[in-house]
Amino acid sequence: MTQTVAQEFLLILIVTGLGAGNGLLFDCYRLLRRQIRQGYLSTQLSDLFFWVICAGIDFYVFFQITGGVMRFLPILFLPAGMVAYLKFVSPYVREPLYFCFLQIGRFFCLLLKSLIICGQIILFPFRLIVWVLNYAMQFICGVFRLILLPFSYCWRLIRRRIWEWRRKG
Length: 169
Description:
With about 170 residues, this protein is mainly α. It has helices at about 5-35, 40-65, 70-169.
């Protein structure tokens, strides 16, 4: 085989693998969509976003391998690789991939809970200070009310006497 035939064969293998990679990304996207229910518009936008990402990756790989020269064969083998992956490999990969996504989700939940606990531990002294100040202010307000209670009682008594005196007069 000459250098150009070997390069073409390698290009076809890489492009077929790229199509299989697109199929794997599609399986990941499909599993995420199974977990997240979306409306019509968000589905359309996420589909567009997914295919734009895949097209960008494919274009980048094509450009790096061929130097920007596009031929018919690589364009033909890209969907062939994706179809081969989705037909033969995807049924066996989907469940382990779903299990991996569940484990990753559990890990992120655990990470979030640990961050919340760390935040509570870090903020505990400040919360303690706020609690002590709140208790002290409630105590001071209660003492102030007790001090003002006789004056309040006398004021009500005086107002009542004035009100009765006006009604008689």
